[in-house]
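Collaborator request, handled under Task 6.
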Amino acid sequence: MSAVAAHVNSISVGMCQGFSAVLLPQLLDSKSTILVNNVEASWIASLGVISNPLGALMSGVFMQILGRKTTVQLTSIPFLIGWIIIGLSTDITLLCLGRFISGVAIGMSSACYVYVAEVSLAKHRGVLSSFGPIFVSIGVLIVYSLGSIMPWQVVSIPCALTSLLSFLSVNLTPESPSWLASKGRVADAGKSLMWLRRKPSLADKELAEILNNLGDGNGSTAPMLRDFTAPAVWKPFLILVCFFVLQEASGIYIILYYAVNFFQVAGSTVDSNVASIAVAVLRLVMSVTGSVCIQHVNRRTMAMASAVLMAVSMAACGAYESAYGPLSVDARPYGWVPLACILFNVSVSMLGMVPLPWMMIGELFPLKVRGIMGGLVPSLGYFFIFVTVKMSPGLMTALTNDQIMWLFSAAAAVAACFVAVFLPETRGKTLVQIEKLFSSGEHEATKGTEYLEKKFKPNDSSAVYTISSLVDVCHK
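Structure tokens returned to the collaborator:
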């Protein structure tokens, strides 16, 4: 219930990300009441991304000071303001302003993943975090579908109502128990855990683990500069930043933001609006498929398979363009091939390459710095998205179609190699265990913990308490 309420914001994220794909073709139409050129159109699309880093940094500060739940709830406010301004726009200035404000909200929505990670049990964290990509895909599908039959001004109305729904739904959920404990509010943390777990034994056991990880329960856990230079912080930071760079280079966000235009460039013989809706439907189906797989398949395996299949699909599309690029679209044999390759690429990207970096933001960092890093890392990820979205029109002009496909294929292949070497496996591990994976000298203690957990019954709270105490003694 808490995860669904938090991820209603993700529907708004998908609406914002998909909106430019239906907005720009209508604005570039000669009948549009607001006429724009190609340069202005690229700015309207990219302004929905350029402010994402600002929003993500804001969310990091808010999460640390105000709490995870409060930050998730505050996220819906700029969404609502942005959509109202867009719907009432009469010139390009107001459109740009609305896109910029809603872009701030997209950045702030990264708090959803931190909140969900902290309120979830380890065995449920993967599937509950995967609600985010599912809800984003729902938002994209709604906007693509409505945009194909309605003016963009009308489409902004359900988008605004979604942000209002998010504000109301989050109000029904409790604050993150980890954040409450870190602020010394142990009693409130216990109440939150009781609401979430519904069993006193589970709540007490988890509260003891949180307090043990904090060192003591006096609330003196404000992050210091030395905390950010610890291996448990800079190692996952570098891994996630590199993951995001390779994700953007693979072209998946270019396809999302310029769906209609991209299908025209790729030479698809299918109507561009129909093709973009097909992309949204596939994203949704594969998001659901990914949420099922993430419960049974290792994260690294999913990411590697996703990257390899993306590389193969883009290479196939590039080969087709190399062979038949000089021919007109109508004269090309097997005109469905580019569409099939792109749809397959989008499908497999949702199994790992798109959702995993965002999901792992709430998993990889220690509690002390999770709020700050949960804002900083997404801000860099959104900055990389902005760079790729802003460069896309120039890229499509400077390179031939087949060269663009080969570039995307090469980036996905490099991503597969990177994941195989550097990405840690987090499936089934608690946030405390994940933190110890990156801490120098603590990997042996983690192995000991895993061994003892096999020896004792998983639900034996005394055994878990003994394990955590023994590990603490070993460290000392």
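The cover message to the collaborator said: "Residues 216-220, 441-453, 455-468 have pLDDT under 50 and may be disordered. The chain has 25 helices and no strands. Please let us know whether this matches your experimental observations."
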